[in-house]
Amino acid sequence: MTTARDLLVVVIDTRSGPSVEQGDLSLALAGAELIDLIDAGVADLHRDRVVPGPWEAVEPAAESGTDDRLLWQAASSLVRREPHESVEDWLWRRGRDLVAAYLAVLETGSSAAGRWRARKPSLSIDPSALADSPARWHANDRWAAHEPVLAALAAAAGVGGRDDGDPIDGSGDRDSGADRDDFADLGNDRAVTVLAAVNEAVVELAGVRQRRAIETAAFDNIWRAL
Fold it and tell me: Which residue ranges are recorded for the region named Disordered (predicted)?
């Protein structure tokens, strides 16, 4: 059970899927993976650089679940040559299509979820289609306990923060303007660095979407004027 999988379960169980941008969630999932890799001693941070740990530490146990193997894939993709990769570069590279990879994980645990996604390939998975499993209980328990890292990642992805109740009750307003000071109470400088980078990347992606929308609207106006 990984933080990335817990995050995806929270997004679906809060019924926030339709309102969450997949790009934002992909960045948050990549941040979740990096925090788990650091906690496991597989990676570390030197300033803003991701420094891999010993290669032997990343081999998954034979009994590991699919989501653990995804985390192993993340570990195996760490840039091992100096000057190594920045946290920001990691988020953009690893986050590409990461939502689809973790949705596939959920499909392996729930045939109903797989059938739902086959009909509508988006985040709009009915919570009732998720397997009622220990993995789901674990994610919901972390969310109900307002676990700081999970709450911060969910907020970055577009799900309300720690005052939004349990996963079944819904979600709140998004706060995409968080910075390092907002995470100071975590007491973990590495997690703070990753979370701040996730929020900065989400804000940057929002800016890109806004510029594209303005450009598209301007182009449409030109055609209407002809």
Answer: 159-182
